Amino acid sequence: MKIVPGPASEKLGADVASRIGQDVVPVSFRVFPDGESYVRLEGDVHDEDVAVVQTTSPPQDSRLIQLALIADAAKRNGARKIIAVVPYLAYARQDKIFLQGEPLSIETIARMLKTSGVDEIITVNAHKEEILSKLPFPARNISSIPSLAEHFRKTTEGAFAVAPDSGAIHIAEEADRVLRGGHGYLEKHRDRYTGKISIEKKEFSIRGMTAIIFDDIISTGGTIIAAAKILTELRAAAIYAACAHALLIGDAEERIIRAGVREIVGTDTVPGRVSKVTVAPLIAEELLR
Ligand code: R5P
Question: Which of 37, 102, 144, 242 is deepest in the core (most CB within 10 A)?
Fold first, then answer.
């Protein structure tokens, strides 16, 4: 197998390759003056299984195009099978038609990747795992939640794991299996037209405890801020936020900290200031499987 780290995940791709002892095929990459992407494989992939590691966090659209171009280049150069390792899978939140007239974005994206030559996908904490079985190729999902919980266990074993909405209960359960301080969920409502979030209070007994909000994505921070407000009202002694994909759009990080969250911890599915946990061992293990 050859590992091709895309421009969005160069370090992660190289880490994965060294963990499984496989060669890296570098990609030369540039952006034309008009904004179009150019890629070129700088190595041989003929008759090889190829794993292209490319996250699709913002700027999602150009990173998806780069992934499609790399897959096409690999297929044209004789790759046997192309596994797209997409740690953060963009457009996965539009996994159904919420309002009449909308597209089913994740299926559209998957069809584009299949046409480009992708035979299989591996992703991390897909927004809803169920959608993966509807994609036009086999898709595997890895969870980074145990690794995130492990990161906290060293300092905050016994912390209470909170899911900010009922769709994330399984995430809080997973974290609780490591932290062993109990878990619960809040009830979130998002206005489909304005995007405004409201969260209902639940009566957990977390007075004096450390509470960690676990979610798959932190984007604008609205969900975490609303959840932190409730945990503060419930008199948690300390509040932390953890997620697989810390997109942290605009001033989300500052606003979350101002809302009383001590620390935000994310993974390197989205490289950045808070990506303190690596998913490289999980991806390496999945590729070896
Ligand atoms: C939504 O269902 C997701 O699981 C996250 O809760 C959401 O994407 C977070 O977005 P934001 O940070 O903008 O509230």
Answer: 242
